[in-house]
Amino acid sequence: MLYNFDEVIDRRDTGSVKWHYSDETIPLWVADMDFKAATPILNAIEQVTQHGILGYTKPTEALYDAIIGWHGSRYDLSLEKQNILFSPGVVPSLALMMNVFTEVGDAVLVNDPIYAPFMTKVEQNGRTLVTSALKEVEGQYRLDLVDIEAKIAQHEVKLYLLCNPHNPGGRVWTTEELEAVLTLCKKYNVTIVSDEIHQDLTLSGHIFTPLLTLATGYEHHVVSLTSMTKTFNIAGIKGSLIFAKDNELLKKISQQQHLNDEYELNLFAYAAMRSAYEQGGAWLAQALAYIEANIDVTVRFLEEHLPDIKVMRPEASYLIWLDCSAYAEDDKVLYDTLRAAKIELNAGISYGEEGHLKMRLNVACPTALLLEGLKRIDTALSDVSKNP
Ligand SMILES: Cc1ncc(COP(=O)(O)O)c(C=O)c1O
């Protein structure tokens, strides 16, 4: 079946976080796509309501098979049922991991820039946030392994929250980079939690490697988090997965989940997850092709109209990291300038100090809407001069 990603669907007045405005703002910010979900997923949800009984529900064997099948065939990640736990979301899992692996006051390492909840959950849970800035090399982020080791040693880091693929930079860490990180963590006995929620949005020419496939011999210190919600644009459904290979570790995580009874999903999430992993591949392939075309459109537009914006082309995801430092000196002024032109992007500074004068642009929307948004960015920034 062919999907029409050009269709503009009105999301105003639906409670949408992305489209909350009362004016004509174009929202190209939060990581949520303006595309209708895959038909098999919508059908699966409809089947649940048609059945009509919405009682307590647990994951079925067919759901476990779907999860195992998807990750095995796409990423060579071999999972068994006992390696899989359910969680209401990846961010809740990040908070959970803090409580499984660390005590109040312990140091937790994250990269900078990083998806903001990596930082806020560490701080809100009373842990000490330690950051390691990513290095930009030839327009792409690299992990600074020397700095990571120094920070681990200096702060006696207990837990490293890694984001692979990286949000906001869109980098898909290579096998070599991941192995180097594992080597460092082994040396200092650091647990790694890898947030892999953007795994399925890896773009052509790049290969996503699940950290667990490299963790042989270190399984008791490695956990990965993922979800079908980002991949299939069903974030409102809520639901995610926790994978680990070590039984003791799984027991510890499961016990922590049971403290607050947060180990199960609602029946719509189970149904959506199963159909996504069983039948969502065709939608995903088409969505990714559309996203790649939108990335090309954006890169060309910016080269032509705002050549001083430095574009970090994503290796995964539909989020583009833009260095706007040629057009502003102050983060708030930059954000407000764009807002005044009725366009919303995420302010880079909310992803850490390395996000200074950067903006994150979401291109997962109909191309016509994207082009209108790009025109507004052009109008807003081309009037701005650093030296008035
Ligand atoms: C890296 C990363 N982790 C987690 C999330 C959110 O996960 P959830 O909605 O399952 O809490 C996002 C959403 O954008 C994300 O980019």
From TrEMBL:
Gene Ontology MF terms in the entry: cysteine-S-conjugate beta-lyase activity; pyridoxal phosphate binding; transaminase activity
Secretion signal, residue range per the UniProt entry: none
Entry's transmembrane regions: none
Residue stretches making up the Aminotransferase class I/classII large domain: 43-377
Keywords: Aminotransferase, Lyase, Pyridoxal phosphate, Transferase
EC top class, as a word: lyase
EC number in record: 4.4.1.13
Entry keyword annotation includes Ligase: no
Top-level taxon of the source organism: Bacteria
Cofactor(s) recorded in Swiss-Prot or TrEMBL: pyridoxal 5'-phosphate
UniProt xrefs under InterPro entries: Aminotransferase_I/II_large, C-S_lyase_PatB-like, Class-II_PLP-Dep_Aminotrans, PyrdxlP-dep_Trfase, PyrdxlP-dep_Trfase_major, PyrdxlP-dep_Trfase_small
Family in the record: Belongs to the class-II pyridoxal-phosphate-dependent aminotransferase family. MalY/PatB cystathionine beta-lyase subfamily.
NCBIfam families documented for this protein: C_S_lyase_PatB
Protein's name in the database: cysteine-S-conjugate beta-lyase
